[in-house]
Specification:
This protein is mainly alpha-helical and 255 residues long. It has eleven helices and no strands. The protein folds into three domains: 100 residues, Leucine-rich Repeat Variant (Alpha Horseshoe), CATH 1.25.10.10; 61 residues, no CATH class; 82 residues, Leucine-rich Repeat Variant (Alpha Horseshoe), CATH 1.25.10. Helix content is 40%, strand content 0%.
Length: 255
């Protein structure tokens, strides 16, 4: 019976045979156990236990044909062995290696062919060094960049082709620099702009073609600018504008 209650199978789908294992001497020493801590097993947890018990085997295992073994061995190998793994054919191995290397090695994966690796790089790279990922081919990578890029560089992303990226930009730009995004082609972006733009600059958005944008402006416009929305074609916008208009007038009367 194995620890996880299922058979010990190797990475090629065959039953694990300790007699044929290159590490069989460790079995006699109690340093590995079939179905629990085993370098030959395809189950990653068992491989991880093996290297936890036998970290000295890691360096010699970095060329193993099974990617899980290489990736887990990279967690225990000497640092000077890891740079070669940045060119490994499997993205899991590349990421496992770079996590233990100094941050400067993250940049070598900025153009990694696998999006998941680039997403992780975008999450971890120092914000000041994210500029080279501004035009990543994957929208989600750029969205992560937009969340972390220094504000001084963020205006470069206002024209990104993906709306989700532009939404992230609109959420972070200083309010007084948002006016250029008030004419964005996507209403979802303009809604964020309407929520953050200084109230005195909301006038153009009060005439937006999308009712949701007008609704946001109705929540923040000063009294003088609310008048056009009192008879808005959308009921929700009209009601909000009239409610605010009445409340502001009452406050001014009692003020």
């Amino acid at each position: 019976m194995t620890t996880e209650n299922f058979e010990a199978i190797d990475w090629q789908g065959n039953p694990v045979d300790c007699a044929d294992c290159a590490q069989r001497e460790l079995l006699a020493a109690g340093q590995c156990r079939l179905g629990h801590a085993c370098i030959a097993d395809r189950y990653a947890k068992r491989v991880d236990r093996f290297f936890h018990w036998n970290p000295s085997v890691a360096n010699a295992s970095l060329g193993h044909p099974y990617f899980e073994v290489r990736a887990i061995a990279a967690k225990h190998a000497d640092l000077f062995h890891l740079m070669a793994l940045l060119a490994d054919p499997d993205e899991t191995v590349r990421w496992s290696a770079v996590q233990r290397l100094p941050d400067r090695y993250l940049e070598s994966l900025c153009t990694d062919p696998h999006r998941e690796v680039r997403i992780r790089v975008a999450h971890q790279l120092e914000p000041a060094r994210l500029k080279r990922m501004l035009h990543d081919p994957d929208y989600y990578v750029r969205a992560v960049v937009a969340r972390r890029l220094p504000l001084s560089l963020l205006p470069q992303m206002r024209q990104d082709p993906d709306r989700q990226v532009r939404i992230e930009v609109a959420r972070r730009l200083a309010p007084q620099t948002l006016l250029d995004m008030a004419s964005d082609s996507d209403a979802a972006v303009r809604i964020v702009v309407a929520q953050r733009l200084p109230a005195a600059l909301l006038g153009p958005l009060s005439q937006d073609v999308d009712w949701q944008v007008r609704y946001q402006t109705a929540q923040r416009l000063p009294l003088a600018a609310l008048t056009p929305l009192l008879d808005d074609e959308d009921e929700a916008v009209r009601e909000l504008a009239r409610q605010r208009y009445t409340e502001i007038e009452k406050e001014s009367e009692h003020g």
